Amino acid sequence: MWTVGGVEVGLDYTKRVGDITFNVGGNFTFNRNEIKEQLEEPRLYDNLVTTGKRLNQF
Q: CA 35 to CA 31: how far, in whole Å?
């Protein structure tokens, strides 16, 4: 089971000058994912356990 949360924001600006159209846009995304529960074998070292940690955490 995973917990997923995040936000996504987009911004776009369009301006027409005569026959020419200018368009500028951007996007920002922030996500947090955490492994709440999974079938995982007991590990010798704690740094090998992924349950309770974020995905792709270093």
A: 14
pLDDT in tens, 9-50: 999 999 999 999 999 999 999 888 777 777 777 888 877 777
Length of the chain: 58
Q: How far apart are CA 12 and CA 15, in angstroms?
A: 10
Contacts of residue 57, defined as CB under 8 A and 6 or more positions apart, other chains included, come to none
State how far the Cα of 30 lies from the Cα of 8, in Å rounded to an integer. Answer: 6
Both structure tokens of 3: 């917990």
Cα 35-38-44 angle, rounded to 5 deg: 95
Measuring CA to CA, which residue among 36, 27, 33, 21 is closest to residue 57? 33
